[in-house]
Design brief:
This protein is of the alpha/beta class and about 230 residues long. The chain has a single domain, classed as Vaccinia Virus protein VP39 (Rossmann fold), CATH 3.40.50.150. Helix content is about 30%, strand content about 30%. Helix 3 links the parallel strand 2 and strand 3.
């Protein structure tokens, strides 16, 4: 097989944005029910969707009655997100996280970092920033590709729609403990840890997941700011 194309986060996701919403993504199928269950009561709340991508969570949050600030480093992803969400309920920001977010301290009732952190070198800085912008008593919802996938060599990747070559987006092999300790070190309180594996039900929805059967694919943390 030819060597994959390797791209940094911003150009990688700009290219991926062309096909991202059309892909059969097993990780998203595992992740979205967890996030929706944890954020079932967001009506009237101000929410930060950090690393919003094509706006899959932003669209769901606004439909549930939240007012959302959506952040992403990729203009291509943001263009897709803008096309699917009502402008009067979302403010979009082109932003490279974990640089400080353009938001005041304690600005948000809920802060969401979904399937982003494996692209971040500095986890402590990321969690400190999530802590800063979340109000006291507010929630932080965190999801990421499970570190067990590192053992299989699985990282964020897609097929370039033009060349047909595999593209791998820059990622870091953080451990389970790296994520948990960075969260706790920021001052956030850990309320729940959830792991989801590729099971028979997932394989029925997307046969591509069969190669990962019984492997944990998703790590999710539900946290709160004291």
């Amino acid at each position: 097989m030819p060597d994959p194309i390797r791209l940094d986060t911003q150009p990688g996701y700009d290219l991926w944005s062309q096909i991202y919403d059309d892909e059969d993504n097993a990780l998203i199928l595992l992740e979205e029910p967890v996030v929706h269950a944890w954020l079932s009561d967001v009506a009237g709340l101000r929410v930060a969707d950090v690393g919003c991508g094509t706006g899959r969570h932003t669209a769901w949050l606004t439909a549930a009655g939240a007012r959302v600030d959506a952040f992403d480093c990729s203009p291509g992803m943001l263009a897709r997100a803008r096309a699917k969400t009502p402008a009067d309920r979302v403010t979009f920001h082109e932003h490279m996280f974990p640089r400080p977010l353009p938001a005041r301290d304690s600005a948000f009732d809920v802060t969401l970092l979904a399937l982003v952190a494996d692209h971040l070198a500095d986890l402590p800085a990321a969690f400190r920033e999530l802590h800063r912008v979340t109000r006291p008593g507010g929630r932080v919802i965190f999801t990421v590709l499970h570190p067990a996938m590192n053992l299989l060599g699985l990282t964020a990747r897609f097929t370039d729609p033009d060349s047909g070559k595999e593209v791998r987006v820059a990622a870091f092999e953080h451990t389970f403990g790296d994520y948990v300790m960075a969260a706790l070190g920021s001052g956030l309180t850990l309320e729940e840890i959830t792991e989801r594996k590729a099971d028979a039900d997932l394989v029925k929805k997307t046969p591509r997941a069969e190669k990962y059967l019984n492997w944990p694919m998703l790590l999710a943390l539900r946290l709160r700011k004291a």
